[in-house]
């Protein structure tokens, strides 16, 4: 599994955007994944930006005056269409066909940029910044990937926040947490397996919360045969998830906690994506790699805590 984070994307675009032509007058982003790289290019080049739908409907007309004024031209400079990635070229072909029907077709040069290219020959791709073969996963669509039906996903920390120590009392406070905790993310597709260290006795509350928030899944696997106290004393949260993941035909586990992600990957001998530091843990990672990845996650967490304390 090849993984790229937002941080990877931003730094790559910053390094590579100088390779783009100088005559760009308008940046068009393909919703939704193309928004971030397109906005970055538009801001650095001081160019107007619109969505593909806005451009196709003629909403970019208002941008032409600013383009003419800035470049001293006639407003017919190059249009750069930006997407995050291209695979087999099917989506690109559809975009190209739509652009061919635009009133400006043939009047303004149009180029297409995909930040990440799969390596498969694609007609109509003018620029790409990095070749990332399949299978691949990006931070911005990790929970919306079409392969979600073959993923394992944790609940606390991924779909909702983790309970605080006070809430995790195995009593009334925990019951309130299970009932009322806020949603963090809503996956687009059905999840293959939800695997959680929540106890089996909390299955009704968990299923109710998932149903209320429209989260679809094929199977919910909870920890059985132990008490909350025994689970805390054992401290082997990654063990249960790793053993379960190992015995399933799943290709990825999405976990929120770095140390658990490391343990799950080692036990299951399969990759684990950690949403705390947006790093991919692999069973072949050496200890130095693991410690460096965990250190980055801890620094990010400490930075966020400091900003909250300072009110920033």
UniProtKB/TrEMBL annotation:
Highest taxon, organism lineage: Bacteria
CDD domains linked to this entry: PRTases_typeI
Matches recorded under InterPro entries: PRTase-like (IPR029057), PRTase_dom (IPR000836)
Protein name: Putative HAD superfamily protein
């Amino acid at each position: 599994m090849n993984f790229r984070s937002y941080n990877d994307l931003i730094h790559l675009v910053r390094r590579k955007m100088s390779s783009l032509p100088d005559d760009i007058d308008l940046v068009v982003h393909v919703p939704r994944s193309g928004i971030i790289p397109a906005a970055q290019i538009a801001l650095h080049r001081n160019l107007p930006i619109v969505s593909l739908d806005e451009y196709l409907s003629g909403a970019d007309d208002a941008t032409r005056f600013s383009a003419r004024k800035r470049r001293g031209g006639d407003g017919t400079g190059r249009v750069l269409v930006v997407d995050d990635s291209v695979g087999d070229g099917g989506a690109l072909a559809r975009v190209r066909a739509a652009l061919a029907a635009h009133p400006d077709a043939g009047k303004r040069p149009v180029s297409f940029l995909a930040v990440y290219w799969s390596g498969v020959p694609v007609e109509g791709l003018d620029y790409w910044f990095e070749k990332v073969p399949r299978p691949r996963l990006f931070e911005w669509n990790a929970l919306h990937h079409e392969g979600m039906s073959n993923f394992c996903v944790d609940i606390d920390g991924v779909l909702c926040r983790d309970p605080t120590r006070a809430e995790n009392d195995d009593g009334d406070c925990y019951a309130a947490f299970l009932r009322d905790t806020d949603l963090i993310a809503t996956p687009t597709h059905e999840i293959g397996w939800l695997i959680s260290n929540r106890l089996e006795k909390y299955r009704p509350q968990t299923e109710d919360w998932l149903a209320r928030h429209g989260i679809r899944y094929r199977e919910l696997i909870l920890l059985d045969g132990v008490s909350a106290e025994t689970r805390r004393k054992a401290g082997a949260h990654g063990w249960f998830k790793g053993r379960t993941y190992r015995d399933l035909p799943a290709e990825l586990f999405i976990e929120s906690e770095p140390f658990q992600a490391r343990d799950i990957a080692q036990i299951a001998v399969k990759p684990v994506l950690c949403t705390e530091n947006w790093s991919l843990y692999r069973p072949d990672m050496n200890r130095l790699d693991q410690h460096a990845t965990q250190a980055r996650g801890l620094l990010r967490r400490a930075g966020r805590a400091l900003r909250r304390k300072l009110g920033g």
